[in-house]
Amino acid sequence: MAQTEYIVIRAEEDGVNVIGLTRGTDTKFHHSEKLDCGEVMVAQFTEHTSAMKIRGKAEIQTTHGTIFSETKK
């Protein structure tokens, strides 16, 4: 796999979930992490990870810019 992209996730509340989704014909959850307020996770897309789902209030920095996720109301 060529150079892969990193993203940075900074939780803005306790209990932010970061869920990795598989690459291939069947998309499945393969890994999850729970972050508390202020915790930072640096994640990378790999040959096994094609997508990430972030649940909760967080700042997400990518090469495409900064995105803010919100808490479900």
Automatic annotation (TrEMBL):
GO terms for biological process: DNA-templated transcription termination; regulation of DNA-templated transcription. The lineage of its organism: Bacteria, Bacillati, Bacillota, Bacilli, Bacillales. Gene3D superfamilies: TRAP-like (2.60.40.50). It comes from the Bacteria. Pfam families: TrpBP (PF02081). Oligomer of 11 identical subunits arranged in doughnut-like structure. The gene is mtrB. Keywords: RNA-binding, Transcription, Transcription regulation. InterPro entries: MtrB (IPR000824), Trp_RNA-bd_attenuator-like_dom (IPR016031), Trp_RNA-bd_attenuator_dom (IPR023558). Residues 3-70 form the Tryptophan RNA-binding attenuator protein domain. This is Transcription attenuation protein MtrB. SUPFAM superfamilies: TRAP-like. Belongs to the MtrB family. One of its GO terms (molecular function) is RNA binding.
